[in-house]
Amino acid sequence: MVYIFRKKAVALRYDQKKENAPKVVAKGSGKVAEKIIEIAKSHGIFIYEDKELVEILSALDIQQEIPPHLYQVIDEILAFVYRIGKKYTQEQEIFTLK
To answer: pTM to 2 decimals?
Structure first.
């Protein structure tokens, strides 16, 4: 038996000052997913891999806010990204102070 998995990607945006919840701003599979990932990497955007979450988010429309039942999951991811970003910034500051 052979399983072929096409790569999928969903990009979210969240501006606390303007939006009530994160929104889907891009999604796709195959070559489109690869391009989304390439663009994210080139802009230093954190990439979180979770096949189940991508499947759920892929069902949403572009510019649609995530549903309330996903708030906790997305919040945990955003908190994780924030902590990593803060640690990275602090390490960069320490490195550049030498």
So the answer is: 0.76
